[in-house]
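Quick one: C-alpha cells for this chain, please?
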Amino acid sequence: TIQLIRNGFLWFCTIIAAFPLASFYERPELQYLLPLSGLALLVSGSFPIKVILASRSMSLFRVTTIQLIGQVVGTFTSIALAFYYQNALIFVVGAILAELSRLVLYWFYLPGKGNNFSWHKPSVQELLSFGKWIMLASACGFLGQQANVFILGKYLKPETFGIYTVALVLA
C-alpha cells in the first residue's frame, strides 16, 4: 500500500514537472513523455510483496528470470516499434510494457500469497518518520549525480547529447 502510494506521488511529480521541464529544455514532447514514462512507476508500485520475500529467502532464480524476461519484452518492443515510428515514445512504451510483463509474471509465477491493501497505523508512522529522510537523501543524491545530464541537456545539440549519454552509460 505504501509503495503504491509513494510511486503514485512520484508519478504525480512527473506530471507537475512535465510542463516546466518541456519549457526549460524547449522540447514540447516532454509534456507527454514524462507523465507517460511515470506510469512505469505506478506499475512497479503494484509489484507483489512476493518479490521481496523471494529475494529475502534467496530464491533469486525466478525473480532474476522474470526481470530478464521483462527486459527482453521492453527491448524487443522498442526495437520493433523503432522500425515504424522514429519517435522517443517507443522507449516509453517499451519501458511500460517491460514493467507490465514483470508485474504479471511476478503475480502468477512467484510462489506465495498475493498482496492485499491494508493500513497498519504504527507501521506507517514508523516508515514515514524514518523513510522521509532516506527519500530526501536519495533525491538529493540522484540530483547531484545527474546534474551533468540536466545541465548539458539544455546546452548541447540533441545529437551530441545522445552521444554523450551513450558514452556515459558505457563508461
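The chain has a mean pLDDT of 86.
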